[in-house]
């Protein structure tokens, strides 16, 4: 193992914290953040050209396939300017709202941020959301316009949006991350504008735990920023929130290859390897101190990750249950925000109820299960966590009808709301507002922006929504009605009382738990009718009629019937008296009645039929 960990003793210039620059890149999806990261590594000589590849810092297959960043990554680069050697610590952050806590932790490790805007698309929603996080951390912002080499780019219009929407008066640098045009000027701007990291290497150790992931050979690798003090191999450290203690085996940086150092000093961002085998001992955002430290005040900003979207995951083949369990546990080691609980449904068998940070997080986990572990899984319809206050004052949280207490024990039910910012071209304002009204949105305000040209004036619609209404195909519908140009970002707001009911689906009188859901009462009838109709199209016909019902408690609100499959018992009658045919038909009717009594509750709802409903509901 030591052969794979080269000791880099040439980075001795890091003793001077004035030559360290810690910065991140803030950008909307597809604005070129990963491409700019590649060019920065290339210009600084962080990797040989023969080893260079696109999206170098995106280590997961799902990141490369979707063109997004899911996990924060850090790379320590060397750059010489005016005879001085500088260490540039780039923390590559996710951009999507589902990973906002990951972004927040990463920004806490920085003193500056590059605000990257596509010169052909202008400012988008996720850029605005992450700008606020950077301002909260008091970071120096460096505006940069990317893709200026494209024929469709409008640097002047994009510059106006950076000034008017983001509130940055500084004239942005113009670059092409793809070709490398202007990248060296970005580096020089970072060195000139981003301040020195604060901290004192002579003080007692205090470090911020930025990220952690599991390596099958090394255990849990921790990414930390040293606020004060020093970290060396052999030191005994303690995590303040979990109180877990370990002895450090190695410290170092990523360049982007892993390299050992003798010491990590104040201001530096690097890794710790301490033979940590369980990620549950590690809470991201925690404060790392020496084991014997008397420090009692942790660094600000720590918060426990709370999932907002829930669904159940079941293997298509029940014999794959153990494989699914091991696979989810491995993903949990890589992703501390994934919540896993055991679950069991008669129609789907044994599985797991999982909590996610959002729909993209859910989709990423599903894709990783399929790509990395070659598993075919069934995922139930996503739901949110509802807050129930019981008559005796107890408060519980539920996300499935099976968890609901009896109605007479419930005082009130509350659902989570979110604040949403939607950026669209002005011509799509009407259809977008109609969509928002359909999703129970409450308008807060509308801000009009200057477009990139006279034909593309834009506006920001500020709304509040119930979270349950935007996790179902809101994004797809927004993209459809805005011809792909609409974008939105949301943040958690608060719980509000609502009329939420548990909707159950019954097939031949038996509840199909996999399709049950918690739903707003005003939408329950339409949704119940749709589910019944979908199941009617999917179920195999039997020799007796099958009733498909949607119910709220004991009240049936929708029903469809799969008609009986009729066998022509009179086919063998070629003539004779009609009474012979009537006798056969009466015998068949009697047999069907007997079969129905015998088969009551025995209708099999196939996984294919359930999967069809669940996929369409998403």
From TrEMBL:
<dbReference type="InterPro" id="IPR004161">
    <property type="entry name" value="EFTu-like_2"/>
</dbReference>
<dbReference type="InterPro" id="IPR027417">
    <property type="entry name" value="P-loop_NTPase"/>
</dbReference>
<dbReference type="Pfam" id="PF00679">
    <property type="entry name" value="EFG_C"/>
</dbReference>
<comment type="similarity">
    <text>Belongs to the GTP-binding elongation factor family. LepA subfamily.</text>
</comment>
<comment type="function">
    <text>Required for accurate and efficient protein synthesis under certain stress conditions. May act as a fidelity factor of the translation reaction, by catalyzing a one-codon backward translocation of tRNAs on improperly translocated ribosomes. Back-translocation proceeds from a post-translocation (POST) complex to a pre-translocation (PRE) complex, thus giving elongation factor G a second chance to translocate the tRNAs correctly. Binds to ribosomes in a GTP-dependent manner.</text>
</comment>
<dbReference type="InterPro" id="IPR000795">
    <property type="entry name" value="T_Tr_GTP-bd_dom"/>
</dbReference>
<dbReference type="Pfam" id="PF03144">
    <property type="entry name" value="GTP_EFTU_D2"/>
</dbReference>
<feature type="binding site">
    <location>
        <begin position="30"/>
        <end position="35"/>
    </location>
    <ligand>
        <name>GTP</name>
    </ligand>
</feature>
<dbReference type="InterPro" id="IPR035647">
    <property type="entry name" value="EFG_III/V"/>
</dbReference>
<keyword id="KW-0648">Protein biosynthesis</keyword>
<dbReference type="InterPro" id="IPR035654">
    <property type="entry name" value="LepA_IV"/>
</dbReference>
<feature type="binding site">
    <location>
        <begin position="146"/>
        <end position="149"/>
    </location>
    <ligand>
        <name>GTP</name>
    </ligand>
</feature>
<dbReference type="InterPro" id="IPR038363">
    <property type="entry name" value="LepA_C_sf"/>
</dbReference>
<feature type="domain" description="Tr-type G">
    <location>
        <begin position="18"/>
        <end position="198"/>
    </location>
</feature>
<protein>
    <recommendedName>
        <fullName>Elongation factor 4</fullName>
        <ecNumber>3.6.5.n1</ecNumber>
    </recommendedName>
</protein>
<dbReference type="InterPro" id="IPR000640">
    <property type="entry name" value="EFG_V-like"/>
</dbReference>
<dbReference type="GO" id="GO:0043022">
    <property type="term" value="F:ribosome binding"/>
</dbReference>
<dbReference type="InterPro" id="IPR006297">
    <property type="entry name" value="EF-4"/>
</dbReference>
<dbReference type="GO" id="GO:0005886">
    <property type="term" value="C:plasma membrane"/>
</dbReference>
<dbReference type="InterPro" id="IPR013842">
    <property type="entry name" value="LepA_CTD"/>
</dbReference>
<keyword id="KW-0547">Nucleotide-binding</keyword>
<keyword id="KW-1003">Cell membrane</keyword>
<dbReference type="GO" id="GO:0045727">
    <property type="term" value="P:positive regulation of translation"/>
</dbReference>
<dbReference type="GO" id="GO:0097216">
    <property type="term" value="F:guanosine tetraphosphate binding"/>
</dbReference>
<dbReference type="GO" id="GO:0003924">
    <property type="term" value="F:GTPase activity"/>
</dbReference>
<comment type="similarity">
    <text>Belongs to the TRAFAC class translation factor GTPase superfamily. Classic translation factor GTPase family. LepA subfamily.</text>
</comment>
<dbReference type="GO" id="GO:0005525">
    <property type="term" value="F:GTP binding"/>
</dbReference>
<dbReference type="GO" id="GO:0003746">
    <property type="term" value="F:translation elongation factor activity"/>
</dbReference>
<keyword id="KW-0342">GTP-binding</keyword>
<keyword id="KW-0251">Elongation factor</keyword>
<dbReference type="InterPro" id="IPR031157">
    <property type="entry name" value="G_TR_CS"/>
</dbReference>
<keyword id="KW-0378">Hydrolase</keyword>
<keyword id="KW-0472">Membrane</keyword>
<dbReference type="Pfam" id="PF06421">
    <property type="entry name" value="LepA_C"/>
</dbReference>
<dbReference type="InterPro" id="IPR005225">
    <property type="entry name" value="Small_GTP-bd"/>
</dbReference>
<dbReference type="Pfam" id="PF00009">
    <property type="entry name" value="GTP_EFTU"/>
</dbReference>
């Amino acid at each position: 193992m030591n052969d794979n960990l080269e000791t880099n003793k040439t980075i001795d210039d890091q003793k001077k914290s004035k030559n360290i620059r810690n910065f991140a890149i803030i950008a909307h999806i597809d604005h070129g953040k990963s491409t700019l990261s590649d060019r920065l590594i290339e210009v600084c000589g962080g990797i040989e050209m023969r080893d260079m590849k696109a999206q170098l810092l995106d280590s997961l297959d799902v990141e490369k396939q979707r063109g997004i960043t899911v996990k924060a990554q850090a790379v320590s680069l060397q750059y010489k300017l005016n005879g001085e050697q500088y260490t540039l610590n780039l923390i590559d952050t996710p951009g999507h709202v589902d990973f906002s806590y990951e972004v927040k932790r990463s920004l806490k490790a920085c003193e500056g941020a590059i605000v990257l805007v596509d010169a052909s698309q202008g400012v988008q929603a996720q850029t605005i959301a992450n700008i606020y996080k950077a301002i909260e951390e008091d970071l120096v912002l460096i505006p940069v316009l990317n893709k200026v080499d494209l024929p469709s780019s409008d640097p002047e219009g994009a510059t106006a949006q950076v000034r008017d929407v983001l509130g940055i008066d500084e004239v942005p640098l113009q670059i092409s991350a793809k070709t490398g045009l202007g990248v060296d000027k970005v580096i020089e701007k970072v060195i000139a504008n981003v301040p020195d990291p604060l901290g004192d290497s002579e003080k007692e150790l205090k470090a911020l735990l930025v990220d952690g992931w599991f390596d099958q050979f090394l255990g849990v690798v921790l990414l930390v920023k040293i606020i004060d003090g020093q970290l060396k191999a052999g030191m005994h450290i303690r995590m303040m929130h979990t109180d877990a203690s370990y002895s450090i085996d190695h410290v170092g940086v990523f360049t982007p290859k892993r390299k050992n150092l003798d010491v990590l000093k104040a201001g530096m961002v690097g890794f710790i390897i301490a033979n940590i085998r369980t990620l549950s001992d590690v809470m991201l955002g925690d404060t790392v101190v020496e084991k014997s430290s008397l420090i009692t005040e942790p660094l600000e900003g720590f918060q426990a990750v709370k999932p907002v979207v829930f669904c159940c995951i079941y293997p298509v083949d029940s014999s794959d249950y153990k494989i699914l369990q091991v696979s989810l546990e491995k993903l949990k080691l890589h992703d501390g925000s994934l919540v896993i609980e055991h679950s069991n449904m008669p129609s789907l068998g044994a599985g797991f109820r999982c909590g996610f940070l959002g729909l993209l997080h859910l989709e990423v986990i599903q894709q990783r299960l399929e790509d990395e572990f070659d598993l075919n899984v069934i995922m139930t319809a996503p739901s949110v966590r509802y807050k129930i206050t019981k008559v005796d004052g107890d408060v519980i949280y539920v996300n499935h009808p099976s968890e609901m207490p009896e109605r007479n024990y419930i005082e009130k039910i509350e659902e989570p709301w979110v604040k949403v910012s939607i950026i669209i071209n002005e011509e799509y304002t009407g259809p977008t507002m109609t969509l928002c009204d359909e999703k129970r949105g409450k308008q807060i305000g509308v801000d009009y922006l200057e477009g990139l040209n006279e034909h593309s004036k834009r506006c920001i619609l500020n709304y509040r929504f119930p979270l349950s209404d935007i996790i179902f195909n809101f994004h797809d519908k927004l993209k459809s009605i805005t011809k792909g140009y609409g974008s939105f970002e949301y943040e958690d707001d608060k719980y509000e009382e609502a009329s939420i009911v548990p909707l159950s689906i019954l097939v031949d009188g038996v509840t199909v738990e996999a399709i049950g859901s918690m739903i707003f009462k005003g939408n329950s009838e339409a949704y119940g009718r749709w589910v019944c109709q979908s199941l009617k199209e999917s179920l195999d016909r039997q020799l007796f009629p099958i009733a498909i019902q949607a119910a709220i408690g004991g009240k049936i609100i929708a029903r469809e019937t799969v008609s009986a499959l009729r066998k022509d018992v009179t086919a063998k009658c070629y003539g004779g008296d009609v009474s012979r045919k009537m006798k056969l038909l009466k015998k068949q009717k009697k047999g069907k009645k007997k079969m129905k009594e015998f088969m009551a509750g025995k209708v099999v709802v196939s996984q294919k039929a359930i999967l069809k409903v669940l996929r369409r509901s998403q």
